[in-house]
Amino acid sequence: MKVAVVGATGLVGGEMLKVLAERNFPVTELLPVASEKSVGQEIEFQGKKYKVVSMDDAIAARPAVAIFSAGGSISKEQAPRFAEVGTVVIDNSSAWRMDPTKKLVVPEINAKELTADDKIIANPNCSTIQMVVALNKLHETYKAQRIVVSTYQSVTGTGKKAVDQLMQERSGAEVTSQAYPHRIDLNVLPHIDVFEDNGYTKEEMKMVKETKKIFGDDNIRVTATTVRIPVMGGHSEAVNVEFAEEFDLEQVRELLRQTEGVELVDDVKNNVYPMPKDAHGKDAVLVGRLRRDETQPRTLNMWVVADNLRKGAATNAVQIAEKMLEMGLLQE
Ligand code: 2RA
To answer: Which of 87, 157, 168, 263 could form a disulfide with 82 if both were Cys (CB 3.0 to 4.6 A apart)?
Structure first.
């Protein structure tokens, strides 16, 4: 199968190539796409060297699937051009997520909604994906009514420029890479993406809106505070969820053990709980610190950690392609 990876030279694009190879996705020809200045650059994939191609050349090659991580404006402009030649686009930007004609997919939750008519599919925001994967079976069983989430997000979510800023600050080198308005080393920034008129950031509103769309339930009340921290390896989230139905903690644990994509990491007596260092490089969403919110009934606290470049982006996108292949919606 001809597969295009648009944004192939970025952090997430690189992770997409890694995951495609690791999961043996049936790529017969890779079309790595990046900015004009990168055209001709060589990329190694499954032991073969491929040259970065232009967007036009990739479209002309009519790939079966194009996995995008190239920002919203490029996706808005180029995804329809791929779709016009019959390519299925799986886009990691926010461009299409809230478009009512586009599906917002976490395979473990709503891949069954995909049809042959879906030519542009949106990959949710990383911080949303890990939260809804953790909540999936709990929501199914007890029906989430209100979610209060605080996130502790890795600088890798911003990209190479942010990782460079952190490394330069940490090493004492001259800081030439300014990804943030403030120092990030030994600091935290309660500021991810831009502020909106309601005082929330775009990142926070993504979690609010995307959660409702993925669960197909506009009545779920979500409020979020998203924070950037000087950490590599993954995003962490403190999730407080109020359910319609009463729950039993042991049953919650059992449901989490049965939840696709979740690894229960919860034994505080032995200092066992989810941490980014353990999530890094894995596709599982690690869940722990389970405890009842003793201030109100039917409410659970939990701690959720995942590698934001993998399940939060690249792996989720490749899993969508795998599901579509399985469902006969992609031609090999
Ligand atoms: C971030 N979720 O962490 C956003 C985009 N990757 O910056």
So the answer is: 87
Say yes or no to pLDDT of 332 above 80.
no
Q: Is 235 an annotated catalytic residue?
A: yes
Which residue bears the tokens 């229960």? 264
Both tokens of residue 17? 């190539």
Domain positions in the chain are 2-123+313-327, 127-154+193-226+231-306
> Does the beta carbon of 158 sit less than 6 angstroms from any atom of ligand 1?
yes
Q: Round to whole Å and give the CA distance between 282 and 26.
A: 21
Question: Which among 81, 79, 120 has a CA at the least distance from the CA of 103?
Answer: 120
Q: What is the mean pLDDT of residues 60-72?
A: 97
Residue 23 and residue 318 in contact, taking contact as beta carbons nearer than 8 Å: yes
Query: 270-287 burial, b for 16+ CB within 10 Å, e for fewer?
Result: eeebbbbebbbebbbbbb
Q: What is the pLDDT of residues 291-315, one digit of tens each?
A: 999 999 999 999 999 999 999 999 9
According to DSSP, the β-strands at 221-228 and 144-153 are parallel
| Ligand 1 site, residue 111, Cβ cutoff 6 A | no
pTM of structure = 0.97
15 C-alpha to ligand 1 centroid (Å): 15
CATH no., domain 127-154+193-226+231-306:
3.30.360.10
Q: Which CATH class is domain 2-123+313-327?
A: alpha beta
